[in-house]
TrEMBL record:
The NB-ARC domain, residue ranges: 128-279
Protein name, UniProt field: NTPase
Protein origin, superkingdom: Bacteria
Gene3D superfamilies according to UniProt: P-loop containing nucleotide triphosphate hydrolases, Tetratricopeptide repeat domain
InterPro entries attached to this UniProt entry: NB-ARC (IPR002182), P-loop_NTPase (IPR027417), TPR-like_helical_dom_sf (IPR011990), TPR_rpt (IPR019734)
GO molecular function, one term: ADP binding
Lineage: Bacteria, Bacillati, Actinomycetota, Actinomycetes, Micromonosporales
Database matches in Pfam families: HTH_31, NB-ARC, TPR_12
């Protein structure tokens, strides 16, 4: 820039207009199809628009007066002279204009319009730039190009031209000479003098456009060569190309700006329909409008057809339009009387340009039940080598019949999938489609079988027996790889497992469901688990498979603390076991039924189940079952207050689990040992056990167990006196809980609230502590988790005691004592007694000493050191008879 004064004057004038109009940069830029950054540079004097049409738009949007407009024009002329050292370009088009009429009711695409305007602005006057608008059929490429070009005519003195390469007509690509002749006619060349040879036509066009700044829209380009030949005739201006193909080579050869068009979002889609129908038509049924939008899947062509249907059928309701779409979507998206402008016709062109193998693969892709897929999945589906499938997918992606998503993954647009399904129904035999799905299902089964064998071998062993599959002898995948593979294909695996059996014959989708048991119990949502295992229960025919499916359904309910339904399903599974000889499955049902009873606060009944399980697995020599039974019995011992015995048994089962290479049982034993060691005051041992369990749970992808373990590590830091670290760990557990809330069991949420409350209590943040512990109790009550409910009543009683809320403390202590007596929770009962005794200390009541001494004795018997830290100083207070004590403080 030779002199900044001229640009500063122009920028100052822009700022003055902006302030007077009360505009902000964002809104002013949006209505003028500019980016906020570009307008910011203009207003700061860091850049000057290359075309006056930009200044005109800015003035119009700000409702500038005649005087302001004249001033802006003058200052822009001076600024451009200083920028380029030459006279500015003309502000009107003296050349030919052959653009088609701009589409009525054009909406959305603001970002893309801004990018085109920016490209035009930064293109030097005597140079050319290129934009390539790409996307699937019906996405609105031509509409965007012509809408934008119609508003730019005045910025191109050499003319504004439009030519179509007929890439969307059935008769194929026309000769390039026809396109050249069309352009030459626009520049006044008579038909008699028209060159018939392509090279001559190109040379003539170059002569006519030399030194002229031209805007040209080249529509429906099919090949890079077509684009290069035509674009080479224009040395100045802007070349806008639209194509269903990516034409990536133009970016390398012409520095073309790629402008891929995605589907419109729901808000933009409503805007498109409203522009044609008016808002009144849609206001009566906003929910129905959202369904219309979902049917159209963000495709502008579909949206405009639906809007036109509503306009031409004023009596038709939104609900009726949706019913038509529900019956057959593609038929409802046709312009009756105009077969060339329908969604089906738009897809037909792209489809028929493909060769036979590509067409076949495209049709079969409709069989895939999930949202996306890999080249390997496509190869399995089509029964082709990976290299062949990969090549075909690249061709389909280039034609925008298939979309590329995450690296290495592909997807079909919703309407493209409907189109492919229609084609497959008419062109492929049912046996062909069934074979394709079975091929895909076999591939999914191999993934699930191999990964599950690594992550949860004991659970997979039962699934193998139920499905009759052969076990995998070895696998090279480690736990992280196996988990990543299942996570990546998760939605596809679930979709395949829940696909109705009647859609493809034969099917073994229920095999897939049962193989996913271990993965879904650790990482699936409640809804996913119910859907998958309910489908298996409906489809499975062998009694063994039905029994296993009932077990899986029960497990989902148990993991998500829905104990009533879980107990019902376990009893169904046990009745099925009565019909077959499968003691391992019976043992699993009995064990998990015991876990439900334990969660419901019936440790005595649970112990009976676990004892029966242990006897059964020992009788049949089932090592994995023996380990699980021992862990379960140790859990009962813990709840009943036999802490030292529980810890010893947990550590013993951990050794057995390591010998058996049972990662789930190994981690569970370590977690439980850490929990018990913490109650015994063995914080170092607890920390080591919990850290080991956490590493395994994370490798296995067991989110609920991971949250539980992090919460216990927070409690461990609390008991070590590291309160800041405890808060960090509690926050980490809460963050993971928030991220994984649909997956994680309510028991984990209770644990997080509980430990957060106790840490706040230690920090004398009584208000926060009371809030967290109250929430823990509410969650435990809602889900009927008796042990955690009793435990948190006892903790909340201590917190109220420390805060001086004696009535509230007495209330919650009584609740804890009642639940403890009913269910045999010795430690929790003693905690309640310790609080009740402390409340009575100021009155000097003998009741205080009796309660404290009783609690102290139980804490001594069980080894519960945190309890001894409560009772010992309180008993000393009673013995010293300190009547002035007003607010006794305890330690949780």
């Amino acid at each position: 820039m030779n002199d900044t004064g001229a640009t500063d004057d122009f920028a100052a004038a822009l700022r003055s207009v902006k302030v007077r109009a009360g505009l902000n940069l964002r809104d002013w830029a949006r209505v003028c199809y500019l980016s906020r950054a570009s307008l910011h540079r203009y207003c700061r004097g860091q850049a000057v628009p290359s075309d006056y049409v930009v200044v005109q738009r800015l003035a119009e949007a700000a409702s500038a007066s005649k005087e302001e407009t004249v001033t802006l024009h003058h200052l822009w002329v001076v600024a451009r002279r200083h920028v380029e050292g030459t006279a500015p370009i003309a502000t009107g088009s003296a050349g030919p204009v052959t653009l088609p009429a701009a589409p009525a009711g054009f909406r959305a695409r603001t970002a893309e319009l801004c990018r085109l305007t920016e490209l035009a602005d930064r293109t030097p006057v005597r140079e050319s730039s290129m934009a390539v608008i790409t996307g699937m059929a019906g996405i609105g490429k031509t509409a965007l190009a012509t809408h934008w070009a119609a508003r730019q005519v005045g910025a191109f003195s050499g003319g504004a031209l439009y030519v179509t390469m007929c890439g969307d007509h059935d008769h194929g690509t026309p000769a390039r000479v026809r396109a050249f002749q069309h352009l030459l006619l626009a520049f006044g060349v008579s038909r008699n003098a028209m060159p018939e040879v392509e090279e001559d036509a190109a040379a003539t066009l170059r002569q006519l456009t030399a030194d002229k700044r031209v805007l040209i829209v080249i529509d429906n380009v099919q090949s890079i060569d077509d684009a290069r030949r035509l674009a080479g005739c224009f040395t100045a201006g802007l070349i806008v190309i639209t194509s269903r193909h990516t034409l990536a080579g133009l970016t390398a050869s012409h520095n073309a700006m790629p402008l891929p068009l995605p589907a419109l979002d729901p808000e933009q889609s409503v805007e498109v329909i409203t522009a044609l129908t008016g808002p009144q038509r849609l206001e009566a049924d906003p929910g129905g409008v959202q369904r219309l939008v979902a049917h159209c899947a963000g495709l502008p062509l579909a949206l405009r057809i639906i809007a036109a249907d509503l306009v031409h059928h004023p009596q038709r309701t939104i609900a009726e339009q949706n019913r038509l779409l529900d019956m057959h979507r593609l038929t409802a998206l046709e312009n009756f009387g105009d077969s060339q402008h329908s969604v089906r016709a738009a897809f037909d062109v792209s489809y028929h340009l493909q060769d036979g193998p590509a067409r076949r693969l495209f049709r079969l892709l409709a069989v895939i039940p999930g949202e996306d897929f890999t080249a390997t999945a496509a190869a399995a589906l089509a029964g082709q080598p990976l290299g062949v499938a990969d090549d075909l997918l690249h061709r389909l992606t280039d034609a925008h019949l298939v979309e590329s998503g995450c690296p290495g993954r592909y997807r079909l647009h919703d309407l493209a999938k409907s189109y492919a399904a229609d084609l497959s129904a008419t062109e492929d035999a049912p046996a062909t489609r069934g074979e394709a799905f079975q091929n895909l299902l076999d591939w999914y089964l191999a993934i699930a079988h191999q990964a599950s064998s690594v992550l949860c071998p004991e659970q997979t062993e039962l699934a193998i027996r139920a499905t009759g599959r052969s076990p995998i002898t070895s696998s090279s995948a480690d736990r992280e790889q196996a988990l990543a593979q299942l996570d990546t294909e998760r939605h596809n695996l679930i979709a395949a497992a829940t696909r109705p059996a009647g859609e493809t014959q034969p099917t073994t989708a229920w095999h897939l469901a049962l193989l996913l048991r271990g993965y879904l119990l650790g990482r699936g949502t409640f809804a996913e688990g119910i859907a998958v295992f309910s489908a298996a229960a409906r489809q499975a025919r062998p009694i063994a498979a039905q029994a296993f499916a009932a077990l899986c359904l029960a497990d989902v309910h148990r993991v998500h603390a829905r104990y009533d339904a879980a107990e019902d399903h376990y009893r169904v599974a046990l009745r099925r076991c009565d019909e077959i000889d499968w003691p391992q499955l019976r043992a699993a049902c009995i064990a998990n039924l015991g876990a439900v009873l334990l969660g419901r606060g019936r440790p005595g009944d649970a112990s009976a189940c676990f004892a029966e399980e242990l006897e059964l697995v020992r009788h049949i020599g089932y090592a994995a079952g023996t380990i699980a039974a021992a862990v379960n019995l140790a859990g009962c011992l813990h709840q009943l207050g036999h802490l030292a015995q529980a810890l010893e048994l947990f550590l013993h089962t951990h050794k057995l689990a390591r010998q058996q290479r049972s990662p789930v049982n190994e981690a569970t034993a370590m977690y439980s040992a850490g929990y018990t060691a913490l109650d015994l005051g063995l914080t170092d041992q607890a920390h080591d056990c919990l850290t080991s369990a956490l590493a395994t749970y994370q490798q296995l992808g067991r989110d609920t167990d991971t949250v539980h373990t992090i919460a216990l590590l927070a409690a461990c830091s609390r008991d070590r006196g590291h309160l800041a670290q405890a808060l960090k760990m509690a926050a980490k557990a809460r963050a993971m809980l928030d991220r994984s809330s649909p997956v994680v069991s309510p028991t984990a949420a209770i644990a997080v609230e509980s430990v957060s409350g106790t840490v706040h209590h230690r920090l004398s943040r009584h208000h926060q502590a009371i809030a967290s512990l109250t929430k823990a109790i509410q969650l435990a009550q809602r889900h009927n988790v008796t042990y955690q409910r009793a435990e948190n009543h006892a903790l909340l009683a201590e917190t109220h005691l420390a805060a001086g809320n004696f009535d509230e403390a007495a209330h919650h202590a009584a609740k804890a004592a009642q639940l403890a007596r009913r269910n045999g929770y010795r430690v929790i009962g003693a905690q309640a007694q310790a609080t009740q005794g402390a409340i009575a200390i100021p009155q000097g009541s003998p009741f205080a000493l009796s309660q404290l001494q009783a609690a102290h004795n139980i804490f001594l018997q069980t080894g519960y050191r945190r309890g001894l830290a409560l009772t010992s100083p309180r008993i000393d207070l009673v013995h010293k008879a300190v009547p002035a004590l007003v607010t006794p403080h305890g330690t949780v």
